[in-house]
Specification:
The chain is an alpha+beta fold and about 210 residues long. It has helices at about 1-15, 20-30, 45-50, 55-65, 80-85, 135-150, 155-165, 195-210, and strands at about 125-130, 170-175, 180-190. It contains 8 helices and 3 strands; from the N terminus they run αααααβααββα. The protein has a 3-stranded antiparallel sheet with strand order 1-3-2, covered by helices on one side.
């Protein structure tokens, strides 16, 4: 029964709504040698249908153990004190208290493009650029840039590409990042009659205009 629930969730989230499968297609273009290329729920329904109990148990015992976890302790304490508490049996101490090395992202290092035809209300474009992880200056510059570009009706992308040139019905710039290298993303729904070439060129113009400003 649980398998059927997950299958229905997959259909509802990715297959039965406009643009639902965008990230299923987008991930492999961006992440070449990294697990992020697969969605947690699976890449396609057959992955859920064909899973057997032995696969589930093997995955669980391989990844869901204390040696593959990170413990976060907040408060006025030190690592030595936390270890002492653990040894006294008051808290579970995982040797991964200090941030363990995480597999470095293998992201898109050169241009890659995919065009897909679907029955959707309007054509849409998605662009992704590699940027630094959350502990780098790039992350905060990207966060600020995304707000300047698309936060509200006074933003650059809205003013230039929606209000003035009427190329898009909606457009957004945003970031996705964590402990590993992140992404700077731009996505938009184009008005009828606007080509992908025009949409992409106009987005690039706005990005380069910001990059060239001193």
């Amino acid at each position: 029964m649980q398998r059927n629930v997950v299958i229905e969730e997959f259909k509802q989230r990715y297959l039965n709504q406009p643009y639902g499968d965008v990230w299923l297609l987008f991930r492999p273009l961006i992440y070449k040698q990294h697990p992020y290329q697969w969605a947690t729920i699976g890449k396609e329904i057959s992955h859920i249908e064909q899973a057997v109990m032995e696969d589930v148990k093997s995955f669980f015992f391989k990844y869901y153990g204390p040696d593959n976890a990170i413990l976060v302790v907040g408060g006025n304490t030190t690592l030595d004190h936390v270890k002492e508490l653990a040894q006294n049996g008051l808290v579970l101490f995982l040797h991964a208290v200090t941030i363990k090395e995480i597999l470095h992202l293998s992201l898109l290092s050169m241009k890659s493009e995919l065009r897909v035809e679907r029955e959707v209300p309007s054509s849409a474009i998605y662009m992704a650029f590699r940027m630094g992880h959350r502990m780098t200056k790039e992350h905060y510059l990207g966060d600020l840039a995304s707000d300047i570009l698309s936060r509200g009706k006074s933003s650059r992308l809205y003013h230039a590409l929606i209000a003035e040139k009427k190329l898009f019905s909606s457009i957004s710039a945003y970031i996705s990042s964590g402990w590993e290298d992140g992404l700077f993303l731009v996505s938009g729904n184009m008005n009828e009659g606007i080509s992908f070439e025009t949409a992409k060129e106009e987005i690039w113009n706005q990005l380069m205009m910001m990059a060239d400003e001193k």
